[in-house]
Amino acid sequence: MTVKTTLSFTDRHHSFLMAKVKQGTFATASSAVAAAIEMLIEDEIHRENALKAISSAISERIDAPHSEFVSGEDLFRSALRRIEAG
């Protein structure tokens, strides 16, 4: 289904949009806007997936036994040894 709507753009956005249509990158301004919205949808999906992965990793670390934790001192000591050896 196609919905007809009216949009307003800044001069900068309108010029860019019309240049892309004139170059043949997009057949119409509507197709360019539709492509931009599709990119926003994809970006949102990737952002949601990244947030879920981060949340899952945090939950796993919270649930990990304390014995698996590495102290900050040990972590930095190990990192410094690697830097000095490299």
Any chance you could write out the topology, listing elements then pairs?
Elements: H1 11-23, H2 29-63, H3 72-85
How would you describe what is shown here?
The chain is mostly helical. It has helices at 11-23, 29-63, 72-85. It is built from 3 helices and no strands. The model has no long low-confidence stretch (mean pLDDT 94).
Rg from alpha-carbon coordinates: 25 Å
Count of helical regions: 3
Number of strands: 0
Looking at the chains present, what oligomeric state does this protein adopt?
Answer: single chain
The end-to-end distance, rounded to whole angstroms, is 60 Å
H/E order of the elements? Answer: HHH
Structural class: mainly alpha
Q: Uncertain segments of ≥5 residues (pLDDT<50)? A: none
Q: What amount of the residues lies in strands? A: under 5%
Mean pLDDT: 94
Helical coverage, percent range: over 70%
Largest sheet: none
What is the global morphology?
elongated
Could you give a short description of this structure?
Helix content is 72%, strand content 0%. The model has no long low-confidence stretch (mean pLDDT 94). It has 86 residues and is an all-alpha fold.
Keywords summarizing the entry:
single chain, 86 residues, mainly alpha, 3 helices
